[in-house]
Design brief:
Largest sheet: 6 strands, antiparallel
CATH architecture of the domain at 9-78: Roll
CATH class of the domain at 9-78: Mainly Beta
Number of strands: 10
Shape: elongated
Strand content: over 45%
Helix content: under 10%
Length: 104
């Protein structure tokens, strides 16, 4: 079970976008794609068969999971994530500071 999942609100703790908040749109191993974070300009060739015009396209690049923290809505700050096994045998993610469940 991953500590950060698609749809989580995260805050960037290192890099050029430090302090920015966003939602995880895709997870690829230990790399994350966060909406409007780590934007890069990509020079693309036109592809007439795909109907794709050429030019400079701005898109999100991957950011390493160690450079983000899950946003705790109660405090408004980044928080570490741990795991807890419930009585019925389910394994859930919990905030380390408060112990409350992330995905209840």
């Amino acid at each position: 079970m991953n500590r950060i999942k698609k749809g989580d609100q995260v805050i960037v703790i290192a890099g050029a976008d430090k302090g920015k908040k966003g939602t995880v749109s895709r997870v690829a191993g230990d790399k994350l794609f966060v909406e409007n974070i780590n934007m890069v300009k990509r020079h693309t060739k036109p592809n007439p068969q795909a109907g794709q015009p050429g030019g400079i396209v701005e898109r999100e690049a991957a950011i390493h999971s160690s450079n983000v923290m899950v946003l705790n809505p109660a405090t408004g700050k980044g928080d570490r994530v741990g795991f807890k096994v419930l009585g019925d045998g389910r394994k859930v993610r919990v905030f380390r500071s408060s112990g409350e469940a992330l995905d209840a």
